[in-house]
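Following up on my earlier thread - several people asked me to post the actual chain instead of describing it. Fair enough. Here it is, all 403 residues.
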Amino acid sequence: MIHLELSAQHQGLQDQLKMVAEHMMRPYSRKYDREEHSEPVELAEVAKLLSGARGAGSNAAAGDKQEPEPGVVKNGGNLMSVTAYEALCWGDVGLMLSMPGRGLGNAAISAVGTPEQKEKYADSYAAMCITEPGVGSDSANISTTAVLDGDEWVINGEKIFVTAGERCDTLVVWASLDRSKGKAAIKSFIVEKGTPGCEVTRLEHKMGIRASDTAAISFTDCRIPKGNILGSADIADDEAGRKKAFGGVMQTFDNTRPPVAAMAIGVARAALDLCQELLAKEGIALDYAEKGVQLTAIEDELYRMESEWHAARLLVRRAAWMADNGQPNSMEASMCKAKAGRMGNYVTLRCVELCQGLGYSEEHLLEKFARDSKIIDIFEGTQQIQLLIVARRLLGKSSSELK
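Reply from S.P.:
Thanks for posting it. Predicted structure:
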């Protein structure tokens, strides 16, 4: 059964990483927020510490498929991942995304890669290339193509909003083998940076997470080895096969959405902590022994935000725990992403408003927390897409039946 509290091992990791966030990330928050696209070289050692903690804490990495064992409860790489993301994003979301190490592409390789691919790219820093101009949230309509030519795939197309697209060394690229066959022909491919025909064309200027590079990447007759496809190259002819094929590609999201949701948990906790610290100086402090009728309007709102935060965190942990224990978690992954993304946006912005001038100024980090939180509700599937997925699961509807 699931336990709602962290194990001593996971709690120890979170405590250590929160110290890292406070003393090795927060001091650089303003610097790299202002110096957009500058690489935060000070975080190289932090990344090494995180890599060591991850290796020591679990034999499984986030995104690894776990087989259920009767009577055995695992708290593995997925739960460790959300625990780490929460702690580090309490420090700074943009800097966490900028640390060299495991990117979203690594989760894809771990989820559906062959043993040889996992071994070869175990130490790579892999970004995920999905979004395209004019496609938006509908991943089934991507136009990037991959054509087999002898022993090589030839990729052509353009990807945008690629997190860590410039600093990574490996890309996981979604492309279609045959656009006439729809989503059944969509596969993912491993492309190493520096491959001829693969080019970073620009870096985006953003409202938040400015420390993180967000790139546009073009592929022009980009040739990669035949073995760099993730999963099978077969295209199913029947409806059931097509659903299964695309479902395998989409499986990556079931493992990456909980960690992204954990980012919202971390930054919302940072905003709540700072907001309460500033309000306490004005004589407004929470006393959990008080009855509801005795609360001021501000105290009541703080309590409500605390309850929303706890609810979102429990959803995130449940989705990660299910992945660790080999349980299907597609609906739960979407639930936690939708809830945490919305909660993070509301809490961080409301904390800015409650602290008035101090919240809006750059004297404190509250306004930055609010700017950074917005993207979490958008990338890795918008809140609206997550709610649509949940509705389909609850109602037993297909994507064609409920749009």
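Residues 188 and 332 are 24 Å apart (CA to CA). That should answer part of your original question.
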